Amino acid sequence: MSLIIRRQIPIVIVFVTAVLVMTDYFLKIPGTGPVVRDLQNWGVILTAFTLGYGAVNLFYLHTRHISRRTPGQWPFSIWLLLMIVVFTVVGVTYGATSKQYSWMYNSSYFALSATVYSSLGFYMTSGVYRTLRPKSVESTLLVITGVIALMRNAPALAVSAPILISMDSWISSIPTTSAQRGIMIGAALGAIALGIRTMIGKETGFLGRLTEAEKGA
Amino acid sequence: MIMKEQVKEKTILEKLEDVPREVLYGLLLLAFIIPMLNPIGFPVPTSDAVKKWYSTIDALPKGSVIMVDFGYSGGGEPELGPMAVAVYHHIFRKGGLKVIAMSTSIDGPLLWDKAMAEVKPEQYGAKYGVDYLHIGYIAGGETAMAAVGKDLRATTSTDYKGSSLDQYTVMKGIKDAASFNLLIVYTTGGDQSEGWVRQWYTPYRIPYLCAVLAMMVPTMLPYQKAGQIVSLVSGAQSGEMEFLVKVPARGIKSADVITVTHLLVIAFVVLGNIAYFGKKAKGGG
Predict the structure, then answer these.
(1) pTM here?
(2) By residue range, what is the domain housing residue B118?
(3) In chain B, which residue's Cα lies nearest the Cα of A48?
(4) A211 with A2: CB under 8 angstroms?
(5) CB count, 10 Å around CB of B262?
(6) CATH number, position B95
(7) ipTM of predicted assembly, 2 dp
């Protein structure tokens, strides 16, 4: 009974759902539309629910850090929980699109996340300066394309030397697109294989913790 | 012997090849700050991709409906925000178009508010609920795109403020993806930019304009070459769009910064390579 509930029923649900969604996407058979619409809306609701569940889980995890005084962690956990509480209270009291909530978001999270993302520019500059060396045929090609791309992406340089635009356009259109297509097709084939294996119960990762016997059943 | 090697002074070539990080970061910081405070006004080229984006919106007949995904996060706002603002200026100035926005990023509604505060739609006579609207953050990524495309009202019945969609005239006649004439996506997520191709272009053939972070462009190029994206631009091209729309703002300023910082990086690459070849010539490298 346990095996049926933990393994067989979820696999049947996944199989039926996948077949329905794929049938609607590729074949447009009348009658599947409303069912798939409901399934997709369930997906949206479930994802929204997981956001709330994530917050609860975060609360639980960091409460444990605080109660155990985890070295190097617990002061940050207090700060995190405080922020969750403050944002939740302001969001619920005034609304998530209120001036108060927007001010808090713009003054803290927005400024910080933009700063963290922007700081990548410093690391990239240092990395480019130290590593772009023509030590082999491959790295020489990398240096040439890298320098062309850098020059093309400097707007003033591209205006003064339009040939950079043509060169960059060729690099983007031919070698980059070809390589990217190869990567995408490979990844898509892998995704199809994984999807089929999941549908027929060969991949059981989505079922959570199973024993070896249950996996092989 | 080891001690002697440790105190051995670096040659000029070695110093050139190993400029301390602090110096490099300091110069880069100056290259950011100076043009930002004192815009130089370097010329900005207008690429074919930006021109095509502009002409696609320009060619829309009156009464067309546009879906906009504000799918970027706070980290990507400095790059994609100016592009979104410039495009909204273009749409509102043209007039006669309906714009429905949604967000596949949880930050989206707040960033949309920020963009609208910059655009000031009222200067073009555009009104919320009549000409434009935001239906809020829809969770689920690609599932959300598919759900909105299949039946928008079944996915959400309210706008981002929680007010019923029925009270807004802009929503009249809008039911699903087939109600839209154009899709515009600003996103910092690869799943989002590719997901819209799968969920809106392929099943409904909705023309798709895509703006992503500069580093995401190579991953999206195959879609553009296959004709699934009408025009693909990066946020770094915001200055070009502002130039076309004739509303110079953050994008033009950042074009100066991009030029100066890129020149600095090129100078350092050249410097590093001169040192590398110099050492090699001396039998060192």
Answers:
(1) 0.91
(2) 48-248
(3) B139
(4) no
(5) 22
(6) 3.40.50.10160
(7) 0.87
